[in-house]
Design a protein that fits this description.
This protein is mostly helical. Helix content is about 55%, strand content about 0%.
Amino acid sequence: MLVVPDPKVVRRLLTRYASLRIALAAGEGREGTRELEDVSYTLCITMGTRNVHEAIAAADTLLVARVRRSGLPAPDSEDGLSAVPSGRSVPVDGSCITR
């Protein structure tokens, strides 16, 4: 049986991931590196992938499919961020951190 993640959870993870990436790119919150690693790992586990880039792509596919099934126009997210942040992830190779 395939377990499909809750789209609201996926959206929150993507939003947090994007927010942390933006803060780190702007030189803010260096302590956020560890949190970004945690969010990246959680996103990978949630989406069943081994790579954060794959997790983001899978999350985007899930969210787009949900909107298409609903037949409604895509709503703006609660936070105003797009579903797929761009750029490299932490760690640099995009792999999920394993503990």
